[in-house]
Amino acid sequence: MSQTTQNNLMDACCAQCTHCVATPCARYIECRSNGPLCHTDAACTARLEAARRVALHEQAQPIVFFGAGTCGLAGGMSEIIPALHEQLAEKGIEITLKEVGCFGLCHREPMMDVKLPGRPRVCFDAVDVKKAKEIIERYIINDDLPADYSMGYINSADAKTDSPEFKALTNLYDMPLLAKQPRNVLQNCGIIDPNSLPEYVARGGYIALTKALNAGDNGKLVINEVDASGLRGRGGGGFPTARKWSMARAQERKPKYLVCNADEGDPGAFMDRSVLEGDPHRVIEGMMLAALAIGADHGYIYCRAEYPLAIKRLEHSIAVLESIGLLGDNILGSGFSFHMKLKKGAGAFVCGEETALLASIEGKRGMPKVRPPYPVQSGLWGQPTCINNVETFANVPSIVANGGAWFASVGTAKSKGTKVFALTGKIAKGGLVEVPMGMTLREVIFEVGGGILDARPFKAVQIGGPSGGCIPEHLLDTPVDYDNLIQVGAMMGSGGMVVMDDQTCMVDLARFFMEFIRNESCGKCIPCREGTTRMLEILERIVRPYSDEDPTATIQRFKSITALEQLAPVIKDTALCGLGMTAPNPVLATLRYFRDEYEAHVYERKCPAGACRSLLTFTIDAEKCVGCTMCAKNCPANCISGTVKKPHVINNDACLHCGVCLDTCRFGAVVAE
Amino acid sequence: MSTTSCNCADDKIQEIMAEYTAGRRETLIPILQDVQALFGYLPEESLAIIAKYIGVSTSKVFGVATFYNQFRLRPVGKHTVRVCRGTACHVRGSKLLLDAFAGELNVQPGETTPDGQFTLETVACIGACSIAPVVMIDESFHGSVQSRNVKTILKEYKD
Fold first, then answer.
1. A253 — alpha (psi -120 to 50), left (phi > 0) or beta?
2. What is the pLDDT of residues B74-133, one digit of tens each?
C-alpha cells in the first residue's frame, strides 16, 4: 500500500556501485546510511541524501500514516483506509499514504498521523471515517490544524515546534504514558512503514550486522556484547542469552539451526505480534546476528497462523532481503550465509514449548520430548538447534550497535534492559508498553497504564499467562524483574499483564486458565492430561449451583481445596514439559493470595465478586421494573412472568443462572446477589 | 457451503502438492494448510492422497490433522463466528458472550448450524485486547460486544 518512491534508498546511486547479489559489497549498508563511500560525486550524494530524507519522512509531500496493526484494523481502520483513498482520488491531491504498525496506544485506536513538510508529525486518535476525512480537509487542504482531534505530536528533525499551534500541543513522548518508556524494541513500531527496508536502514538498521560481519571474528563480537549486556531470554524462562549462544557455538556438528519462537500463544499477550507487524526487520536482523554468533546457516521463524498480518510482513521482508543479497549466500561479501524460512503454526498452544515447536516444524504432532538432550545438542532433525523468542532477537541489533554496556545501564542487577508488556484487562490505558526492568508494578499499572478502568478498586494483576500467577494489591510495589516475580509466585512469562478489578472472581479466573490448559494439553503425559482435567472438575464443582447437588457432591465440594492442594504438587513434579509442570500455577497462585474467595465459594456458596453467575440469585426490583417484557422474552428457561407495564417476577426454582435478564434489562431492575 | 467432490478436487490437491518436494515430512503441515485454504476443510480422501505423496501412513496424517486446532475434517458454514476467549476478553465477559452466541445459533462451539449458515468457534486470543470482548465474523472484527447485541450482529450476516 505504501507508494514506492522512485528514489529507493537501497538502489545503486550510479553505475559505479557494484553491489548486487552476485557481487556483494561489504560497505553496502554503511553506504546507504552515510554514503556514497567509494567515490565522490555530488549528484550521487544528493540522490542518496534525498532518498534518506524520504525514508526519514522528511519529504516534500504530505504523509498520512495509518495505524494498521491488528488492533487498529479491528478498531475500524479497515473502513477508514479505503474511504480516504476515495476522498484523495476525488480531490486529486498527491499524498503519500503509509500503513504503520502498532504504536502501543491500543486504547486510542484507530490512530492516524499526518506529517506536513517541515512540521512535526501530528497524531489523531479515535478517528472514524468522518473525522479522518475532516482532518484531511482541514489540515492538509486548508492548513488549519484541528487541534481538538489531536492527542499530540511526534517531533521530526526537519520540523519546527515553536509555532503557536504546536506550542499548544503536547509532545507525545512527554505524556506520562510514554515518558516512562525508554523504548528500544518498540522504537520503530507505529513510526515506520514495516514493509519498507529503506525506512529501517535510514534509522540505523543493519548497521549492527555490518559491524559484526566486518569484525571478521565469526560472531565473537556478538557473543561478547550480548554477554556484556546481560540479556536474558524474553520468552519466559529468562535464561542468559549469551550462555545459550555460546553452547550452540561450541557444537561442532553441522548443519546448525536457528529458530525464532513466534508462537505467542498466551491468551492476553500480543507483544511479539506487534513487533513482527510493526518492525519485522529488527527481528530478522537480530536473528542474523544470532546465526553469525552460533554458526548457523539456516533459520526458521515459527509464527502462529492466527497472526496473518505478521506472516505477510515477514514474508515480504524476507523476500526483499533475499533480492538485495542481505539474506542468502555470502552476505555482504563476508562469507557468512544464512537462509531463512517461515513456518506457520497450526494452532496448538503447546508448540510454544521448544521441543514441541521443533516437532511441529518437522511436520509431526507438536508434542514435547524429554530433555536432556536439549535442542542445543540435538534439536531439529537431531542437529544442534538454538531457539529464542521474538523479543530476545529484537533486542540484539541495538545491543551490538550500541554495545552491551549501554543495554546493561538500564534495569536491575540481574535483569537488564527493558521489557515489553501487553497491558490489558480492566485497565484505563491499555496497550503495549516497554518499561525498564525493576519498575514497580504500581508504576506500570497506575502511572504508565493510567490506573483501573472506570476508577474501580484494583484487585490483582495476572502476569505470565497460564503458567504465571496473580499478584494482589499488597505486593504492588514488587519490582518487575525475573527474580522478584518468581518470589511472589508469578513469572515474567512472555509479558502479558492482565489487570483485574473487584468484579473479577479469582476462582473463575483459575477455572478459565485451567480450562484453557486442559484443552491445550497435548495428551502425551498423564499428569498433565488427566491432572488438569481433574483440577478443572474440582473447580467446576466449586461453582456449581446449589440446587442440583446430591450429598456426595456436597462432601466432594467441601474437600475441593484440599484436593486441589494435593493434586497440584503431583502435576508439578511429574509432568513432562514446562507447560505441564506449570499447569497447576493458576490454582496455586490464586489459592495463595485469595484463599478467602475459594472458601466463600465452597462453604458460603457465594461469589464475593459477583462474577460466578451460577452462585447468584436473580430477583427483580419491583420499583425499578417498568414491565417492558424484555427479560421475559429473552429468558431461555421461561421462568420470568408478568404482564406488560407491570413489574415482573423470576421463578428461582426454574432459573438457569444464565444472567440474560441482567444483561437485557435497561432499567437496572434485575438484582443479582 | 463448499461441497466440492473429491474426483475433480484430486487435480487441485496434486497441484498444491507439486509445489512441495515429495517424500518430505516437514511439508505435511504446509500442504494441509493449503488444502484447507482451498476447500475450507480437509476432505477425508485428501488425507490418503497427501500421505502417499509424503510417504507416511494415512494414520500419521490423520494424527497431525486432528492434533492442531486449525484443521477441520468437516465442511464449515458460510460464515465463521469466532469468539475470542483470551484472558482480557474473559475478564470482560466473553464466556457469557459465547453462551449467548451458542444459544442464539443453537449450536455448541465447533459446530455448524443445520442450515449451513454459521460455524461457531472459539479462538485463544486474537490480540485485539483493547476492544475486548472481541468477536470475529469471517474477516471482520466486532469489538466490545455485549450479549444483547448478538441478535443484531448475526442479522447482518443472515441471508
1. beta
2. 998 999 999 998 888 888 889 889 988 998 999 999 999 999 999 999 988 777 777 889
Q: Which amino acid is located at A62 in the chain?
A: P
Q: Point out which residues pair with A499 in neighbouring strands.
A: A425, A461
End-to-end CA distance of chain A: 53
β-strands A121-124, A150-154: how paired?
antiparallel
Which residues touch A118 (CB under 8 Å, ≥6 apart)? A158, A159, A160
The B residues from 115 to 154 touching A (CB cutoff 8 Å) are: 123-132, 134, 140-141, 143, 146-148
ipTM: 0.89
Radius of gyration of chain B from its Cα atoms, rounded to whole angstroms: 18
Q: Are the C-beta atoms of residues A361 and B26 closer than 8 Å to each other?
A: yes
Q: How many CB pairs under 8 A join A and B?
A: 147
**Which of the residues A70, A71, A631 would you substitute to probe the B interface, choosing the one with the greatest number of B C-beta atoms within 10 Å?**
A71
DSSP string, A424-492: EESBTT-EEEEEETT-BHHIIIIIIS-SBGGGPPEEEEEESGGGSEEEEGGGTT-B-SHHHHHHTT---
- If you ran DSSP here, which 8-state letter would residue A5 be given? P
Task: Report the run of H or E that residue B34 belongs to, with start and end.
Answer: helix B28-39
User: Is the dihedral angle over the CA atoms B105, B110, B113, B116 positive or is it negative?
Assistant: positive
Q: Is residue A670 within a helix (H) or strand (E), and if so which, with residue range? A: strand A670-672
Residue from A497, A578, A573, A458 nearest A270 by CA:
A497
How many CB atoms lie under 10 A from the CB of residue A282? 30
Q: Look at B127 and A660 and tell me if their CB atoms are within 8 Å.
A: no
Is the bond preceding A527 in cis, omega lying within 30 degrees of 0? no
Amino acid at B146: Q
**CB A121 within 8 Å of CB A114:** yes
The alpha carbon of A497 is separated from its chain's Cα centroid by a whole number of angstroms, namely 10
CA distance B67 to chain A (A): 6
Percent share of chain A, pLDDT over 70 = 99
Residue A57, min C-alpha distance to chain B (Å): 28
C-alpha cell at A603: 462453604
All cell numbers assigned to A478: 514488587
0.90 surpassed by pTM: yes
Query: Is the backbone peptide bond immediately before B133 cis, with ω within 30 degrees of 0?
Result: yes
Do A71 and B94 form a contact (C-beta atoms < 8 A)? no
- Which residue has cell 524460512? A341
> Which cell numbers hold the place of A212?
559484526
Q: Which residues pair with A452 in a beta bridge?
A: A427
